[in-house]
Design goal:
CATH superfamily of the largest domain: ATP-grasp fold, B domain
Number of strands: 22
Strand order of the largest sheet: 13-12-9-10-11-14-21-19
Distance between the termini: 50 Å
CATH topology of the largest domain: D-amino Acid Aminotransferase, Chain A, domain 1
Largest sheet: 8 strands, antiparallel
Number of helices: 14
Radius of gyration: 21 Å
Length: about 450
């Protein structure tokens, strides 16, 4: 087992990893930018190293700075969390070269799933259902028009290096192709320095359902049921739950086995998530695989009564996967509390938190790195907390979450709490009648 783990991240996920490391008797090292010197992940680690100024390119994305911090603290492993360098193959390879264990998959595995075209071809060979689409990248707009006619409108243009909804366009007819082609390429090049586009059939009335998978160093792969992530805005998730109100036993088994096949196709090692679009007829299609721990992993932890970070560390240390069987018990919901004003077009709201009271009570968990007197910096993701509840069933979980959010007090900045309370009182949401466009169609 590792003696000391450096956490190459910040905020709530860094603190989450520190907690499990302490329970496992592993020393921890936090890295931080000058903007994060007061953050709780800095305070609660055994050691902390400042790695640069606020911009992430000069701190949390600076591989030389992070590797230097690992070297001077004699860390024997690095946990990347999510975001930043978590799916950076070069970083994973450098860690291997320096004989520091990267707690995640190898560079080869990251590359196999990081490029959407490569991933799709790998998945198809494994027999996993994929959305009908172009064979590889589209070389020009005329090919895009011809491909769209073959697939049938509506279609979705996608950036091969994309993520977070950037470089994506829905096209409903041929006369919209050229305009969307040009704007998608420009956005993709600006965001990812790669303007390659491919095309897929646009799935109408879709659900976004993902399967948590884990693979050890000995070829064993398991799945830990599903999470429904359909409540999202511009492809950014806002609320997640497990199990999905839309998934039945038959679909859960089929998706679970497909996710295992996808991970096994690249001999996957570590925690990962296979994401699917599910249409109204309960047909599912592979979207992508995230080769890291997810923001929403706590909902799986709650319904499985299982510490995913502990298992992730064990896998990296060469411990075989647990032999226990996994089946969701009860219902869990996670609400992401962001420093944004949902009623002002989701305007970011960094600044000083003058008062903070977090939710408590049976079945309520709050993952956060902020406190009263903390200043939310404007440089990073707006997530300040995650409220996770668990109850016997979905109806009770919704009621518990409403209660928890009503007593969650944040003063000094705007947050997404009012939006979540509105959502949790919406009859369509309560009845489970929603798709990925639900939030965009809400009257805010």
């Amino acid at each position: 087992m590792f003696k000391k783990i450096l956490i190459a991240n910040r905020g709530e996920i860094a603190l989450r990893i520190i907690r499990t490391c302490k329970e496992m008797g592993i020393k921890t090292v936090s890295v931080y930018s000058t903007a994060d010197k007061e953050s709780l992940h800095v305070r609660f680690a055994d050691e902390a190293v400042c790695i640069g100024p606020p911009p992430s390119t000069h701190s949390y994305l600076s591989i030389p700075s992070i590797m230097a911090a690992a070297e001077i603290t004699n860390s024997d492993a690095i946990h990347p969390g999510y975001g930043f360098l978590a799916e950076n193959a070069e970083f994973a390879e450098i860690c291997r070269d320096y004989e520091i264990k990267f707690i995640g998959p190898t560079a080869e595995m990251i590359n196999a799933m990081g490029d959407k075209i490569t991933a799709k071809e790998t998945i198809k060979k494994a027999g996993v259902p994929v959305i009908p689409g172009s064979e590889g990248l589209l070389p020009d707009v005329e090919t895009a028009k011809r491909t769209a006619n073959e697939i049938g409108y509506p279609v979705m243009m996608k950036a091969t290096a994309g993520g977070g909804g950037r470089g994506m366009r829905v096209v409903w007819s041929e006369d919209e192709v050229e305009e969307n082609w040009n704007s998608a390429k420009q956005e993709s090049k600006a965001a990812f320095a790669n303007d390659g586009l491919y095309m897929e059939k646009f799935v109408e009335d879709p659900r976004h359902v993902e399967i948590q998978v884990a693979g050890d160093q000995y070829g064993k792969v398991i799945h830990l049921s599903e999470r429904d992530c359909s409540i999202q805005r511009r492809h950014q998730k806002l609320l997640e739950e497990s199990p999905s109100p839309f998934v039945d036993e038959k679909l859960r088994e089929e998706m679970g086995q497909a996710a295992i096949a996808a991970a096994a196709a690249i001999n996957y090692e570590g925690m990962g998530t296979v994401e699917f679009l599910v249409d109204k007829h309960k047909k599912f299609y592979f979207m992508e695989m995230n080769t890291r721990i997810q923001v929403e992993h706590p909902v799986t932890e709650e319904v499985m009564n299982f510490d995913l970070i502990r298992e992730q560390i064990n896998i990296a240390a060469g411990v075989p996967l647990s032999g226990r069987s996994f089946y969701p018990q009860g219902h869990a919901i996670e609400c992401r509390i962001n420093a944004e004003d949902p009623y002002q077009n989701w305007r970011p709201s960094p600044g000083l938190i003058t008062e903070l009271h977090t939710s408590k009570g049976h079945g309520v968990r709050v993952d956060t790195h902020v406190f009263s007197g903390y200043t939310v910096p404007p440089y990073y993701d707006s997530l300040i907390a995650k409220v996770i509840v668990k109850a016997a069933n979905r109806e009770e979980a919704i009621a518990k979450m409403r209660r928890a959010l009503e007593e969650f007090i944040v003063s000094g900045i705007s947050t997404t709490i009012p939006f979540h309370l509105q959502l949790l009182s919406n009859e369509d949401f309560i009845s489970g009648n929603f798709t990925t466009s639900f939030v965009d169609d809400m009257d805010l």
